[in-house]
Amino acid sequence: MKKILLIVICLSFVFTGCATVEKQELDKLEKRVTVVERKQESLENRMEETVVYSSTVEVEEITPQTGSQISMTKQEIQLALSNAGYYKGPIDGKLGQLSRQAIRDFQADNGLKVDGIAGTNTQKALMPYLTK
Q1: Where are the beta strands (DSSP E) in the chain?
Q2: DSSP labels for 60-73?
């Protein structure tokens, strides 16, 4: 009878210990999941900021000579860069790394502010290459 009681007591300690270890492991996992979720949220926010930034490429301006509006689409920017010999990628309207590098190279060679953004001055300089 003493052996059975001793076995029951030992088993209860073993199971209680296992439950404590499992609880600690679960707590650690929950903390790691929270950290990963925060990182994911931060990355998603940064991606949204990037999308907003890249959608500001189109610029409209009123020229003093004609009073008409000039605005180049992203595809027109790529086409003009391609015609000028700076862009070798597809004309797809997506201003990715190739397009941005082509814009920077064009800006550097034409004495413009090198920022990779096809703003007003860059679009003015690209206009002659749009009709080639």
Answers
A1: 61-62, 69-70
A2: -EE-TTT--EE---
Mind listing the pLDDT tens digit for each residue in 41-88? 666 666 665 544 444 444 433 344 444 456 899 999 999 999 999 999
The total number of residues written for the chain in this structure: 132
Q: What is the largest CA-CA distance in the chain?
A: 108
Q: What is the pLDDT of residues 77-87, one digit of tens each?
A: 999 999 999 99
- 9-33 burial, b for 16+ CB within 10 Å, e for fewer? eeeeeeeeeeeeeeeeeeeeeeeee
Amino acid (one-letter) located at 119: G
CA distance 87 to 100: 9
SS3 content of the chain, % helix, strand, coil (to 5): 65, 5, 30
Task: Kindly state the tokens that stand for 16.
Answer: 């209680």
Stated pTM of the model: 0.49
